[in-house]
Amino acid sequence: MTSERYTHGHHESVLRGHRWRTVENSAAYLLADLAPGQALLDVGCGPGTITVGLAALVAPGEVVGLDRSPEVVAEARAAAGAAGAPAVRFAEGDVSRLDFPDGAFDVVHAHQLLQHLADPVAALVEMRRVCRPGGLVAARDADYGAMTWYPRLPELDRWREIYEALARGNGGEPDAGRVLHAWARRAGFTSVEATASAWLFQREEDRAYWGGQWAERVVHSSFSAQALERGLADRAGIEAIAAAWRRWAEDPDGWFTVLHGEVRARP
Fold first, then answer.
1. Per residue in 30-50, pLDDT tens?
2. Pairing relation of β-strands 131-142 and 88-92?
């Protein structure tokens, strides 16, 4: 069992951000590889919004969503029921020890998971194990160092510095997007295809969502608790970062991009 600490935690502001994710905005690179009847495993599924979308594309194939948090798994089950996705099964699970036989799935997917792991290569080895020969392992992760925004507010520069320090202190790699393909090769995949895509937050409603949830997260989620605990910021500094997120969201010229690395790997 790995000993990573999940940097974001599971505050409502964090889960609200996770619920925004869909197949269309977070897994488009995978769509051409999906077909009805495939068995699919979604590792680190969070509240299940991507999982439910994937299930609709591979129905009537079996879809399993795994997450380490029992509270998040319960929410995912409820969301799947509300969406009328009875073919989806959600369960607690750890990517380092997947409780499935070799070759159980046609597609094994992970979104924003590997960046939080102390040994992402070992996780990819385990994902490869449960993927059938000729199947597909797909992963997508953000690259914090490649995020860009306008206007350049010094408090947001500080936000990134603190986040990257926290993530690395928790055993993760916040710039995972740029090394996914290298990790996949180290995990023994014979075919590795790397791509990239980005989220853009520029329209008023998008700025309100992105800036608003981050303003709340830096104050109320594990971000502030860990930053204070490790001496990376004081309470005034945390409040200044939150205020900068709100100013950015209210600026009609505001622009924020999140670059993601993607990998499609075959055993």
1. 999 999 999 999 999 998 999
2. unpaired
Using CA atoms, how far apart are residues 115 and 141, in angstroms rounded to an integer?
Answer: 7
User: What is the sign of the dihedral through the CA atoms of 139, 180, 28 and 150?
Assistant: positive
Inter-CA distances, 211 with 76, 94, 191, 203, Å: 25, 31, 38, 12
The answer to whether residues 6 and 170 touch, using CB atoms and an 8 Å cutoff, is yes
What are the backbone angles phi and psi of residue 254, rounded to the nearest 5°? -60, 140
**With bands split at pLDDT 50, 70 and 90, how would you rate the model's confidence at 80?**
confident
184-189 long-range Cβ contacts below 8 angstroms, 24+ apart: 184/124, 184/137, 184/139, 184/263, 184/265, 186/121, 186/124, 187/121, 187/122, 187/124, 187/125, 187/128, 187/265, 188/125, 188/128, 188/267, 189/124, 189/128, 189/137, 189/265, 189/266, 189/267
Contacts of 57 (CB under 8 A, 6+ apart): 23, 31, 34, 36
**pTM flag (> 0.90):** yes
**Paired tokens of 128:** 């490869």
The vertex-106 CA angle with 100 and 107, nearest 5°, equals 90
Name residues whose C-beta falls within 8 Å of residue 242's C-beta, 6 or more positions apart in sequence. Answer: 215, 216, 218, 219
